[in-house]
Structures are given as C-alpha cells and as structure tokens.
Amino acid sequence: MLAGLAARSAVALRLNYEHPELGSVAQEVRRRTFWSLYLLEDVFCVGLKEFELCRPEIIQLQLPCADIDFGNEKEAATGFLQPGMGLEPERLCARGLFIKLAFTRRSIMNLNRQIYLNEIDRPGLFSAIESLQSELRRISSQIAPEGAYPPTSTARFGLRPQYIMMHMSYRQCHCDLYRIFLSGYPEAAPQRNIEGIKPRDVATMRHRCLKNAQEILDILFYYDSQADAGQLLDFNAAVCTYHAARLVLFGTSSGKGGIDFSMEAAIDSAQRSLDILSRRFAFSAAADPMCEDFSRLIEKYKGLVRSSNNGAFYEVDQGPRALPGVSKAAIIRQRLSVHSLLLRSDFVDDSREAATEPPRDATVEQPP
C-alpha cells in the first residue's frame, strides 16, 4: 500500500518528467527515485494492468546513468524507456538495461495473454514477435564489452549482481517470447491459436526457448561459484531460475527443443538450482511458495525416473497452481502473473460473509 502511495506521490510531483532547469545530480536523483518505484511496482503487478500505476505511456524520463557518471556529476544521455522518444545511446549501464528489459518482459507477457485469449491474428502475431526480437537485439547491442557474458574478466564481472540480473532477465525475455510455441507446456499458447505456423519456425522457436533457459541456469551456477555467500540477488533472479529449470525439465522429458541432456542430468541441474535459491533466498517469504512448488515438481520427476514410467513425464508439470476464489476470466488474465506479490497477499475477501442474509425467524426487540 505504501508503494502505491509513493508511486502516486511521484507522479503528482511530476518525477516522471525531465526537469531541464535542474543540475545533473538533482536530475539523476529524480530519475533514480522514479525508476526505483517503477521496478518495485513490477514486483507487485507483474504486467497486470489493473495494478499498474507507473504506466509506460506517462513516463517521459531518461533512463538512469552509470554510477561512475553519477558520482562524477557528469551529464550523460541515456535515452528513454521506449524507442522513438529520442536518440539511443550506443551503450547503457546495467541499471538502464535492466529497466528496458523489465518493460520488454511486460510487453511479451501482454502478447502472451493476447495469444491465449485469441485476441491477435497470425499477421499481427508475427509482426509483434519481430518487433520484440528487434528490441531485444537493440538491447543486446547496448551492453558494454566489460558487461558481456561470458565475462572477459572474472575479477571485475563475477561479483556484480546487477550484471547477473541483466543477463538472466535478457534470456528470460527470450524464454517468455518463445515458450508459447512449446506445445504441451502449461504456459504455452493453445494449439488452435498458433495453427498454420510452419513446423520449421516452431522448432526454431522451441530451441531458442530451451537454449536460453539452460543459459539462465549456467549464469546462476557461475554467480553462485564466484560470489560471497551473503551477496544478495533480486527476487527476479529466483523467478528466472524457477521458470528456466521448469523449461529444461520439460524440454528434456518431452524431447522437444533439441536439448542434449539426460533426464537425470536435468533433474540434478534443477535440484542444484533449488538448493541455491533455498540458500540465497532463505530470508524471502515471497520466494517460499515458489521454492515449495519447485521442490514438489523435482520430486515428481525423481519418482518417475525411479519407476521408469517415461510416458508420464509429459504430464508432470501442470504449472503453478491458480489462486482460488476468482472467476475463470480472471484466472486467464492473471495466468502469467502468479508471482505477483499482490496476488499472493493474504487479503481477506469477506464478500460471502457480508452478503449473508440474517435468519428469517430473527426478531427485533422493540424499545420500551
């Protein structure tokens, strides 16, 4: 609730606009304040329009600059959130890139909902995919050489969580974009909604999805081996890891996507991922439901390996459980936002109790 109040206050103070009359430090403080609220809101709403306050269309603000420029009070042109709003710089800092990736992931999730609800035709689908692919290529080109992965300098790169988060989020965008074609996967689009697409194109997209999922796990393993035990990661890292491991397990068990993995190796990789999440997010109550679901899924796969029932692998992962007490339409709209903290909050809906009629035989005492 305080986050929502802060976001409304920021918009009321017009922090979502540039203020050219201010100095570089004051301008950057305004930018970082608003972009922090934008990312905080992303944790709560996860692309759900009904929860958004910092909507992209109201943001006329440059992205944050690099810490070294901020410390040196240097004015830097960082570009804007959406393309077409001004000149795009050749390079962006990890923080600015992460914000652009958060926006791109929102766009991909909205496209997924449109596909699932059959609200977009085939030409519109391919146009949207091409546009998102182009944006991801543009973001990739803006990564500085020292921020590339795999790193060229372990000592410089290995202990910087912001770069790890950026690369995990970049690959998660690809997973979110291409998993709609991974037929049989819980978050895939219904087959009837993507009929007519060439099998070769579908196979390519499946391969890209699973390849990026495996790379997310590789990045996590690299970070865990390099960083101190107390080094923190954003909650988004747990979300990326959870979905990447699910994709690798599904792709290995179904034989789709061309993953060269045995089922045992995929399970070991998933178990290692869960161990890292349990250790590095032990403080996070928000990650607990995800880790519990992750653990149940791994145990199901282990049980099937022991029973040698290969035919049942395909139906193991039914996806995160839908929240009870909402309509079917709401479940469809919110199906890709199961990690939203607002959806996971234990708000008490007492509508049923409030609507209960009093007993018919109740009598009302008359005053004397």
Number of domains: 2
Distance between the termini: 47 Å
Shape: globular
SS field, number of helical segments: 14
- Mind summarizing the main beta sheet? none
Structural class: mainly alpha
Describe this structure in words.
This is Xylanolytic transcriptional activator regulatory domain-containing protein. InterPro entries: TF_fung, XnlR_reg_dom. The mean pLDDT is 83. It is built from 14 helices and no strands. It has two domains: 1-89, no CATH class; 95-338, no CATH class. By secondary structure, the protein is an all-alpha fold. The radius of gyration is 23 Å and the shape is globular. Helix 8 (199-226) crosses helix 9 and helix 9 (235-254) runs parallel beside helix 11 (288-307).
List the helices and strands and how they pair.
Layout: H1 2-12, H2 24-45, H3 67-71, H4 94-116, H5 122-141, H6 154-157, H7 161-178, H8 199-226, H9 235-254, H10 263-280, H11 288-307, H12 328-333, H13 341-344, H14 351-354
Helix pairs in contact: 1-2, 4-5, 4-7, 5-7, 7-8, 7-9, 8-9, 8-10, 9-10, 9-11, 10-11
Overview in brief:
The chain is mainly α and 368 residues long. It has helices spanning 2-12, 24-45, 67-71, 94-116, 122-141, 154-157, 161-178, 199-226, 235-254, 263-280, 288-307, 328-333, 341-344, 351-354.
Features:
368 residues, mainly alpha, 2 domains, 14 helices, 55% helix, metal-binding, Xylanolytic transcriptional activator regulatory domain-containing protein, DNA-binding transcription factor activity, RNA polymerase II-specific, TF_fung
